[in-house]
Amino acid sequence: MPAQLKYVLFLPLCPPSLCCSRKMDPFPYPDGWYADWYFVCHRSMASTCAHAPRPQQANRRLLQDTNLIDNSETVYISSLALLKMLRHGRAGVPMEVMGLMLGEFVDDYTVRVVDVFAMPQSGTGVSVEAVDPVFQTKMMDMLRQTGRPETVVGWYHSHPGFGCWLSSVDINTQQSFEQLTPRAVAVVVDPIQSVKGKVVIDAFRLINPQTLMMGHEPRQTTSNLGHLNKPSIQALIHGLNRHYYSIGINYRKTGLEENMLMNLHKHVWTEALEMDDFKQDGEKNVDKLKRLVSLAEGYEKRVKEETELTKDQLKTRYVGKVDPKKHIEDVGQQLIEDNIVAVSRQMIDKEACLPKNAGANGAVNGEMEVDDEL
């Protein structure tokens, strides 16, 4: 709305008794009538001014002194919840999926997510349907029967392959959550762009449009805690920092959870006994032998050049080129080690598969002959 038009609209609300020649005169009516007063100039260069009062209820609704959300607010997602969100998102590719997050609001700076459960929603490539209240109620009742005291702290959905942001449908869904819980969080995860060691995920909450109209900041800053991801251009185009803002995410793990996750990809000694494919091993041996032949030819050529070229020519002759002598040693050593390991695996595998014959001193293994396997 233009500034002068707004002044014209406010002008009829101002009674004549409130006009004054000084700009910041106090409001002349009793405090019981109005909580605040508004100062409005008729024009930018006008010498007169007026106080346009509004009812106390409207003032409290528009400019109430509430506790704003802090920038250091962090959403702590457990390992179980993160794994379930990623698995659910990958199972629904290329369609979007959604679910509810269970946890608690610890304080004004902490939102803890301990578990999630999927919702039977059908989605398109860019949006999902609204939450099914019947399924949500039944699921929460079953969780209470199992002794789960957590409540719904928000919802999550996936954006397979196109980043983390909220569409218009997602904003409407988040509004319905914030009507029930003002601090509800919307988490967006991208299962396609997420790789091992890097999860593409972000959390959002809507910005009150009345706050923006009055020129107030949606959040306050009281500390230097918290870490926000750099927003993408696509997220800024779709309304980030205009219709919704981002919240920092952290992953809190206990010692037992960390040990369990580290053991998932831990190498064990039995991996060294696993047999490789014979055809692939043969192809690798042939490739390494061909490389040895080419390196040997290059080394022979270099030896001949060293006898024909001068010292000054030799200084710049092989700068930036492969040293065949060094590579012959490395490739040959690797070829020998691979073949020794392969033969040892074959011997152990054959010995383990042979039946044991009972002898005078107990069980005796069969003779280890590897030539038949080779």
Summarize the structure.
The chain folds into three domains: 3-63, no CATH class; 69-263, Cytidine Deaminase, domain 2; 271-364.
Task: Describe, in plain words, how this protein is organized in 3D.
There is one protein chain. The protein is an alpha/beta fold. It has three domains: 3-63, no CATH class; 69-263, 3-Layer(aba) Sandwich (Cytidine Deaminase, domain 2); 271-364. The chain has helices at 3-10, 56-63, 79-91, 133-145, 168-180, 209-213, 233-237, 255-262, 278-308, 311-317, 324-353, and strands spanning 39-41, 49-51, 69-70, 74-77, 98-107, 110-118, 151-158, 185-189, 201-206, 219-220, 244-251, 357-359, 362-364. The strands form four sheets. A seven-stranded mixed barrel has the order 4-6-5-7-8-9-11. Strands 1-2 form a two-stranded antiparallel ribbon. Strand 5 and strand 6 form a beta hairpin. The protein is elongated, with a radius of gyration of 36 Å.
